[in-house]
Amino acid sequence: MDWNSATLLALAIFGFVALCVMLAISLLRQLPELFEAWHKAKGSWRGASKPPTSNASMNTDSDSGSGSGSGSDQ
Q: Is the dihedral of CA 22, 23, 25, 30 positive or negative?
């Protein structure tokens, strides 16, 4: 192996290592957003499995209470 081949091999190895490090850093920076999106998606799937009548009955119970709220000023 001559010096030209050794130099090209060293540059290729360092370039590959640098690429892998930058990829790992960018992935680690995006992990919190990824976990938050996964949590929201999981919550949406759990919320969608409930019947829609339970949400409507909760809204009517809270609106017919003491009369306080955003609509009482009118």
A: positive
Helix (H, G, I), strand (E, B) or coil at 1: coil
Task: Enter the tokens of residue 61.
Answer: 């119970």
Chain centroid offset of residue 73 CA: 39
- Rg (Cα) of the chain, in Å, rounded? 29
CA–CA distance, 33 with 57 (Å, rounded to integer): 34
- At 27-52, the pLDDT tens digits run 999 999 999 999 998 888 887 765 55
Contact 63, 69 (CB under 8 A): yes
10: its two tokens: 């060293």
